[in-house]
Amino acid sequence: MNTMNVDYTTKIPNNVNLSEDRQVLKALEGWHPGYMDWWGDMGPEGFQQSLVYLRTAYSVDPRGWAKFDYVRMPEYRWGILLAPQEENRVIPFGEHYGEPAWQEVPGEHRAMLRRLIVIQGDTEPASVEQQRHLGKTAPSLYDLRNLFQVNVEEGRHLWAMVYLLQKYFGRDGREEADELLRRRSGDADSPRMLGAFNEKTPDWLSFFMFTYFTDRDGKMQLHSLAQSGFDPLSRTCRFMLTEEAHHMFVGETGISRVVQRTCEAMKDAGIGDPSDIAKVRALGVIDLPTIQKKLNLHYSLSLDLFGSEVSTNAANAFNAGVKGRYRETQIEDDHRLQNTTYPVLKLVNGQIKRVDEPALTALNMRLRDDYTQDCAKGMLRWNKIISTAGYDFKLTLPNVAFHRQIGEFKDVHATPEGALIDDATWGKRKSGWLPSSDDGDFIASLMTPVTEPGGFAPWISPPKVGIDNKPGDFEYVKIET
Ligand code: BYC
């Protein structure tokens, strides 16, 4: 079978020859109804009969893998797609460095691999659950369509992990696959596994922040797993990254458009001080200080997703050849890290200091540093919009010690600038740094849906180009009446 093209003759589209892998096909077909029930209960609220202009993956060829067409979401073809197998691929790091990549799960690394695949799998449906209410307040049909594109692809990413579990992990894998449909974001008894995936995504600014910051954690983690010595995981993650790029685009351009609109409105009204929140809000746009607060929240929640700065789990996964570094194959070193160190931010005598730690145990910190660098690019773009409009205001990433629940700084309070403060000061000043319920109410008051083609809510600018180069008034979602 040509692994570039996808077989659409089976119920589950795939490029892994499922029609000849009856056992796995049966397991996946058995899981399918539960998935559809989950989608019905926890997927986007409403719009299930609407025709949405979606892209569906038809090939894994990097030059052209997607087709755009109108689809009803429940009829979207969630498929199993792996990037083509690289001939003679070797394990690019760890103690098995240079050995042939594994096509089956090595017994000694089975538990570790299963855990990582389950954690990755758990985030995908979680984000769909978090975003399920947003359809009814979409600022345009363009945005509504992007939301649904993100949602169906996160659904597909769940399928990707479930395939690995069912094909390679036997009965435990099938049980884990069922559990992935049972846990629920924010549920008191059965929450999703990682903190940020149990938070609410109450409004569209949060959605854009989530897709910018939290999907970017996804990018970093998928890149690390794409290096894995377990080849099916590597190939799966490589293809998922192709889809992931659009999700971050939605976040980056979404925030750009909000910033743009705010700046235009301030200029038109002759407002000179962007921190004059009351005056700016009276214009019906989101003031820049509130955008900064949302950014502080989502960035700090996303930093928690990297785990502890110093982690033996991370060291073991690297040593085992299971999870590598960001762009591992492009790094010039021994790829074993037995004798090297990496500077880690730690609390030393009540101060934040860089301390050299063995590079192996510092891998979460390293990946988080790579992530921070990647995040900073958005700041440059957004600040350019602000400065071009003539305003002296800069959006910034808060210090990594700010508002943390995992790792070195979880027991202290810090300002966004990184100064350590006591509980009382934190209590008093926190609402100046993180969205307060008043901020939430204000943003919620702007969230009225716009559903006519070409229309946009007054708090956000239209995009520069349409999806699939469609014109501005294209009807991206044909809403059922
Ligand atoms: N919340 O050694 P530690 C995405 C647990 S996003 C709760 O510090 P480790 C997406 C940890 O499980 C990417 N618990 O950390 C984005 C461990 O518990 P156990 C998702 C946490 O293991 C948007 C203990 O604390 N993929 O794709 O080195 C939309 C000590 O752990 C948290 C992955 O994350 C937390 N934040 O690293 C849709 C990749 N952090 O096992 C999708 C797979 C840590 O001792 N996961 N803990 O009971 C991993 O690589 C790692 O497990 C982690 C943690 C990076 C998550």
Structure notes:
The chain is mainly alpha-helical. It is 45% helix and 7% strand. A 3-stranded antiparallel beta sheet has the order 2-1-7. Helix 2 packs parallel to helix 4 (170-182) and helix 6 runs parallel beside helix 10 (363-388). The longest helix has 38 residues, at 231-268. The chain starts with 21 loop residues before the first helix and ends with a strand. The structure holds benzoyl coenzyme A.
* Ligands present: benzoyl coenzyme A
Mean pLDDT: 96
What's the main sheet like? 3 strands, antiparallel
Helix content: 40-55%
Biggest sheet strand line-up: 2-1-7
Strand content: 5-15%
- Quaternary status: single chain
Number of strands: 7
Task: Output the number of helix runs.
Answer: 12
Q: List SSEs in N-to-C order.
A: HEEHHHHHHHHEEHEEHHE
Principal-axes shape call: globular
In angstroms, what separates the terminal alpha carbons?
Answer: 43 Å
Write a concise synopsis of the structure shown.
The strands form 3 sheets. This protein has a 3-stranded antiparallel sheet. A two-stranded antiparallel ribbon has the order 3-4. By secondary structure, the chain is mainly alpha-helical.
Any descriptors?
binds benzoyl coenzyme A; two-stranded antiparallel sheet; 7% strand; mainly alpha; 45% helix; 481 residues
Task: Give a topology summary.
Elements: H1 22-42, E1 51-57, E2 66-72, H2 110-130, H3 141-168, H4 170-182, H5 204-226, H6 231-268, H7 277-281, H8 288-303, H9 312-319, E3 341-348, E4 351-358, H10 363-388, E5 413-414, E6 420-421, H11 423-429, H12 437-446, E7 477-478
Antiparallel strand pairs: 1-2, 1-7, 3-4, 5-6
Helix pairs in contact: 1-3, 1-4, 2-3, 2-4, 3-4, 3-6, 5-6, 5-8, 5-10, 6-10
The protein binds benzoyl coenzyme A.
